[in-house]
Structure formats: C-alpha cells, structure tokens
Amino acid sequence: MGVTMAVCASAISAVVAFVVRGFPAADDDGGRWVLLFLVGSCALGGLLGVSRLPHLSELRMFEAAVPLNDPEAVLPRDDTVRRHLVDVQILLIFLVPSLGLALFWSPWAVLYPLPLAAEWLVRTGVAARWERRHGLLLWRGDLKEQPLGKGQMLYSSVGPGTPTR
Q1: Strands (E), 1-160
Q2: What separation in angstroms does the CA of 116 have from each of 10, 65, 139, 156?
Q3: Predicted model pTM
C-alpha cells in the first residue's frame, strides 16, 4: 500500500506541477541534481536492503524469528484488504511535500517519494524470497499472548494447500 501511495502521490504531483509550471526542460541543472539524487537513493536503498548490516537489513530479523503459537490469532479478517486499499494519510504525507517542492523549487521534485517506494519493494522482495526459501510465513505485529523482544518477528508454517516450491 505504501508503494502504491508513493507512486500515486508522484503522479498527482506531476500532473499538477507540470500543468502549473510546464514540463521541465531536460537541460535544467536543478532537475539533473534531483534525478541524480533519486537514482542514487534508489540504488543505495536497494543495496542496503539486501545487505546483512545489523540495523539496515531485515534479514537478521527474519533469522531471529520465533515460532508463532497460534496462527489463527494473527489472520486478517475478510474486510482488511478492502479497508486498506487506499490510505489517505500516507497519500497526503507524500503528496504535500512533493507538490510543494515541485511548485516552488524544481518540477522534478515530484519524484521524491519514489526512492522510498523502491526501497519498500526491495524489502518486500527480500521477505518473499526468505519465506519461499524457508517454507515459512513471517508475521509482524504485537500479540498479547506472545510478547516479543525488540526487532523480533514470528513465523508459522505455510498453510495446507499452499505450495512451498
């Protein structure tokens, strides 16, 4: 959802900024620096996300996960997906600064939410790969019945009928 909101904020900001200020010229020096920063941020976030550095990668948290006692306690209700398709607060958190910077500084600033989206996608891919390789499902959250340590996660086996290969 966060990735979708970041991309939507960039798209909305781009439409508004490009209509108000016009499409930016390719030889704009400010635009070059913004694009260079965005590409560098995406690359750095992706590399750090797949690294094994203690506070920058989630791989160590995955490996320190403990078994979930009751998987039924963390299963989402049926309305969870419908209710969380769009989060207006996250959209506004991305949209307001992006649009403000694009209107008053450089139109290329509409792309500022995209490095976060790229880093979140990398983390999601790392988690999915870890789950697939280990045949387990990772859970994040607080359960009253099973308190965790700081930075710790839970895991459960893959449910019946779910392929593990």
Answers
A1: 66-67, 136-139, 154-157
A2: 12, 25, 22, 28
A3: 0.69
For the stretch 134-141, contacts whose Cβ atoms lie closer than 8 Å and that sit 24 or more positions apart, written own/partner, are: 135/164, 136/65, 138/62, 138/65, 139/68, 139/74, 141/74
Residues written for the chain: 165
CA-CA distance, 3 to 118, in Å (whole number)? 8
Q: Which residue type does 54 have?
A: P
Q: Which helix (H) or strand (E) element contains residue 7?
A: helix 2-21
Q: What is the pLDDT along the chain (165 residues), one digit of tens a residue?
A: 778 888 888 889 889 988 888 887 766 566 677 677 777 877 777 777 667 666 666 777 777 777 777 666 555 555 555 566 677 888 899 899 989 988 888 787 888 888 888 778 877 888 888 888 888 888 776 666 666 665 567 777 776 544 444
Q: Is the dihedral of CA 57, 60, 61, 63 positive or negative?
A: positive
